[in-house]
Structures are given as structure tokens and as C-alpha cells.
Design brief:
The chain contains nine helices and 21 strands. It is 26% helix and 24% strand. It starts with 14 loop residues before the first helix and ends with a strand. A hairpin with a 2-residue loop joins strand 17 and strand 18. By secondary structure, it is of the alpha+beta class. 58% of the residues are buried.
């Protein structure tokens, strides 16, 4: 399903009608998200809201994506294209997939795509478009509970689902569901979350169908095309306001979980008169580790930075991204090839990709762009047997950090930023669902970089385990630091530790380990960079950075 290029004024319609159409399509995606959240079983979806929902036209172009998870921004259309081989479609069909190399991002993100048909009166049904949902399942099998292990190949991370039908003409393909549930540690929870996704799909189908029947086929298709063209015009107008030039930036991940060598990510951003090109040549080759990102993740992270520059009211659709092109070296950490692992690529490498594109853009707009945020999702997964019920459990959590200081003021403390838009699981919900107890969830004061406007502080989260469990940490900025801008100082690195009866030990950024009842895992998340030179001399706050921020050389 190749994306169509804009067709100029031919697809322009009355602005008021276009705004109404955009609102209606967007509300369908938002209602899908509300359905998914309120019917899901796991705290990861119900409380953290780790999901995205979207609507597409008949060619698989994104018409609207609800304001859920930015890392899914450019990846969801890949899923619709990936299921194209399942055509021809029938009303009631529903496809499911999670293969990162066939439309997914990483294995816990399970995607559903279903076609939407309309039948006016006695006429023949016509394909309106598609709706899609992507939800992070707290366990999808693999070598460690939570399916986010420190792995070296994809098969270790969990069950790989290529694009297949879960429903055929409205009827459940029971064998498909049975296969998925048999390969997860928590089948009852997975059944509940998957059924919630199906419910969200059906809501989206109904709303899109109602809209198409109200407008009629011709007006619906014209409005869809006009909406995409409008998105393209907004992007080109924004690009025209940027200074033309070539801007290069690089940064690195701390390590890959196996070797201590930093993982380099490089971008060269070329701003033309009405287009952008991002060249990631020079980025590290893919590793036998889970830090690899598939191309869809790299595009999503890059689109996100551009989206931050657009007007707040701009629609989120495929038209926005028509003026953007990429050079993504195959077999690199930004365009990995099978069979390497990719779980951390979606959650950690995506953050560093954002940082380098952000850094390149900051050279073009030094007075507008804030400093680097914490640059990590601070992933913790855990699981075992719950002694209260004698059943398996699996838990996934991300923790916030500092938000970069910027020209308008200091950064926020202890918040999710950039590629993650989730919430924290409330302590009450967490303790009810799992054998865990939150001992502390506080601001890590003084961890943000100083500046005219300081970077936001990270947080301290201490979680006590009430049962034996396997724990995996996938975290970043434990060596490197979030860079400042315009003379602002870098934020403090994060720290991981394990508190036991024998004392406290420091943990690496990426590690799998066992805990016993009473053990406490402590995450001290990174602070963000400051913006502008500090007005007062710096008080002593420990060692200076061990590695300078990446080169920010500009060429014209």
C-alpha cells in the first residue's frame, strides 16, 4: 500500500468541513483508546495507558492517531501495510501481529488491524479504510518474565506473531488465540487484554462506518485526501520557516547490555526549502543485543521531533510526513535486520534517536529548542509466582526523569518525556495486582543540570518484592548524561541498586537478576540538561561528566 503524494488544490475543501471531518475521525481513535483502557485487565494498559489507536484510509495512510504513545507515530502505518498480503478482506476480519520486522516495533507491542466496510442500502460493500490498535502486553513469553530480557536474538524475547487473522468474517479463529495464550506466562490476563483490544477495534470500525455512511463514499474519500494534503501543507510551511542548512549531531547509548562499548548514533539533518532529509550514516552496526531499533521506530522518533515544531492543533496523519525522507543504513542499530533482538530498541534506542534529531534541530533553532531530557524510559520488568494466589504474574513499569530546561523556563521534574507518554502505575493498583510494595516515589532533588533555566530532576523509586521474582532492568544514561544547551550544564546520570539484608549493591544499566522476599530495587532516574549559562557559580555536586556531550558541528 504505497502512500499517495499530495494532489494540491484538487483535494481542498471548505475549511470548516475539513475541521469537522478531522475531529470526527480523531474522536473515533480517541474512543477506541477509551474503550481499550476501560475494558483491559492488566494495570499496564488500564493504569499506565501503554497503547495507541488510529484510523487509516483504504490505502493504509494514517488519517488520525489519538494522542497516546509517540513511538507508535510512524510505526502504525507499517502494520497496516504488513497485513496487505491477507487480502481480500471481508467484513468482520481482524488481523493480529507483533513481528518487529513485519510491521511491529518489539514483541510485547501486539497490534490489531481490521478493515472497515460500509454498505449503503442494498449496494455492494466498499472498503472505507482500517482501524488499528497497539497495546503493550505485560508478557508475551520469551526467556524472562515481562518479555523485555537482555537478549541477543529475537526468538529469546518472546512469541513472534506474523500478520495472521484472529477473526475471520466476524468469527474467532480459536487456534490463533490458543497459540498465543499457550506461549505466555499469564494467559488469563492476556486473554482479557486481547479481548479489550478487539472491543476497541469494533468501536473504531463502527464509528468510521457511521461517518462514511453519513457523508457518502465520494465526500468521505475527498475529505480523507484533503486532510492528508492539509497535513502536508502545514509541514512544508513549517519547514520553510527553518534556516536551510546541514546540521550534524551524535550521541550514544551507554552500552548494549553485553559489552561496555558505547553504541553510537549519528544524524545529519538537511533542511531544504520545503523538505527535510535525515541521514543516519555513521551509526553503529547492529549488535547481538536487544538495543537494535527497526526502521519504523527510527522514523517515529524523527517524526516526533518534527511534530513538536508544528502548530499544536495540527492533525496527526500521514500527510505531515510526506516532506521527510531518510537514509537508514541496513544492518545498523537504527535499521536492524533479523534475527537480532529489538526489545530495547523500541524503548531506549528510540529515546537516543530523538536526542540526536533534537540536537541537530537545536543548531538550526538555538533559541527555541530545549536541552536534552533524561533520555531513558527506565524499564523494569518482573515476574514469578504470586504466593497469594499460587499463579504466575508479570509486571512492567517505566519511570520518568527530568525534562530539559528551555528558553521558556525550567524543565519539569520526574515526568515521562519524548517517546513515552504513559503514566505511572498507582501504588494502590500495583500492590493490589502484584506481590510488590512501593516504598518511595519521590523527586531526586538536585539531579537536573544547572542553567539559566535548570533541567528537571529525576525521581527515586524504591520497590519492595514480597515474593521471589526474576527482575530485568533496561535503562540508559547510567554513564552518559543528558546534555545542556547554550551553556547549560548536563543532568546527573541515573543509578540502579539492589537493597538486601546483606546491604546495598550497585546494578548495571541492563541486567537480569533474582530477588527474594524483602529485597528492594531502587531506581534513581537521570536529571535533564539545563538551558543557558547559570547565573551563580556551581556548588560541588560530585564528579564532572566522564564523557562530553556529542559533537554539534554545523556545516552550511
Amino acid at each position: 500500500m504505497p502512500a499517495k503524494r499530495g494532489s494540491g488544490t484538487r483535494n481542498r475543501i471548505d475549511p470548516a468541513r475539513l475541521a469537522i471531518f478531522d475531529s470526527l475521525v480523531s474522536s473515533a481513535a480517541e474512543e477506541m483508546g477509551a474503550t481499550l483502557r476501560h475494558t483491559a485487565l492488566s494495570p499496564n494498559i488500564k493504569e499506565r495507558q501503554d497503547y495507541s489507536c488510529a484510523a487509516f484510509d483504504a490505502e493504509g495512510q494514517l488519517l488520525a492517531q489519538a494522542a497516546h504513545i509517540p513511538v507508535h507515530l510512524g510505526a502504525m502505518p507499517e502494520s497496516v501495510r504488513a497485513v496487505a498480503d491477507l487480502a481480500p478482506w471481508s467484513p468482520g476480519d481482524l488481523a493480529i501481529l507483533n513481528d518487529p520486522f513485519l510491521g511491529g516495533t518489539h514483541l510485547p507491542d501486539v497490534t490489531m488491524v481490521s478493515p472497515v466496510f460500509a454498505k449503503p442500502g442494498r449496494g455492494k460493500p466498499w472498503l472505507i479504510g482500517f482501524v488499528g490498535s497497539r497495546a503493550h502486553q505485560a508478557d508475551i513469553g520469551g526467556m524472562a518474565a515481562g518479555s523485555m530480557p537482555v537478549a541477543s536474538e529475537l526468538i529469546q524475547e518472546g512469541l513472534i506473531i506474523p500478520p495472521i487473522r484472529l477473526y475471520r468474517a466476524g468469527h474467532l479463529v480459536a487456534e490463533t488465540l490458543a497459540l498465543i495464550l499457550r506461549n505466555t506466562r499469564t494467559p488469563d490476563e492476556r486473554r482479557g487484554d486481547l479481548e479489550a483490544q478487539v472491543a476497541a477495534q469494533r468501536v473504531g470500525e463502527r464509528r468510521l462506518r457511521e461517518l462514511a455512511l453519513r457523508l457518502g463514499r465520494r465526500e468521505f474519500e475527498q475529505s480523507s485526501a484533503a486532510l492528508l494534503d492539509y497535513g502536508e501543507r502545514l509541514t512544508r510551511a513549517t519547514i520553510e520557516s527553518l534556516p536551510e542548512g546541514v546540521y550534524r549531531f551524535e550521541d550514544a547509548l551507554d552500552d548494549d547490555g553485553y559489552r561496555d562499548e558505547p553504541v553510537r548514533i549519528v544524524v545529519q539533518l538537511t533542511i531544504g526549502k520545503r523538505s527535510l532529509h535525515l541521514d543516519f550514516t555513521g551509526s553503529a552496526p547492529q549488535r547481538a543485543a536487544s538495543i537494535n531499533a527497526v526502521a519504523a521506530v527510527t522514523r517515529s522518533a524523527s517524526y516526533y521531533v518534527l511534530r513538536c515544531l508544528l502548530p499544536r492543533e495540527a492533525p496527526t496523519n500521514s500527510g505531515l510526513f510526506r516532506p521527510v525522507s531518510f537514509t537508514l543504513p541496513e544492518g545498523s542499530v537504527v535499521n536492524a535486520r533479523p534475527p537480532v533482538a529489538v526489545a530495547a530498541g523500541n524503548v531506549e534506542t528510540s529515546q537516543r534517536i530523538t536526542d540526536v534529531v533534537w540536537g541537530a534541530m537545536s543548531q538550526a533553532l538555538p533559541e527555541r529548542m530545549p536541552a536534552a531530557s533524561s533520555g531513558t524510559m527506565n524499564n523494569l520488568t518482573a515476574g514469578g509466582i504470586d504466593p497469594r494466589t499460587d499463579t504466575p504474574w508479570a509486571y512492567y513499569e517505566t519511570s520518568g526523569g527530568g525534562l530539559g530546561g528551555g528558553p521558556l523556563g525550567p524543565g519539569l521534574d520526574a515526568t515521562h518525556s519524548h517517546m513515552t507518554n504513559t503514566l505511572n502505575t498507582p501504588a494502590e493498583a500495583l500492590e493490589l495486582a502484584y506481590p510488590l510494595r512501593v516504598l518511595e516515589n519521590s523527586v531526586r532533588e538536585g539531579s537536573g543540570g544547572r542553567g539559566r533555566y535548570s533541567g528537571g530532576d529525576g525521581l527515586v523509586r524504591r520497590t519492595e518484592f514480597l515474593a521471589e521474582a526474576t527482575v530485568t532492568l533496561i535503562t540508559e544514561r547510567r554513564r552518559g548524561r543528558a546534555w545542556g544547551l547554550k551553556g547549560g550544564e548536563a543532568g546527573e546520570s541515573g543509578r540502579n541498586s539492589l537493597e538486601t539484608a546483606s546491604g546495598r549493591v550497585r546494578l548495571p544499566g541492563k541486567v537480569v537478576f533474582q530477588v527474594q522476599p524483602g529485597d528492594v530495587v531502587c531506581l534513581e532516574t537521570p536529571g535533564a540538561g539545563g538551558w543557558g549559562r547559570p547565573r551563580r557559580p556551581r556548588a560541588s555536586r560530585g564528579k564532572p561528566p566522564t564523557r562530553k556531550p556529542s559533537s554539534r558541528k554545523r556545516t552550511r
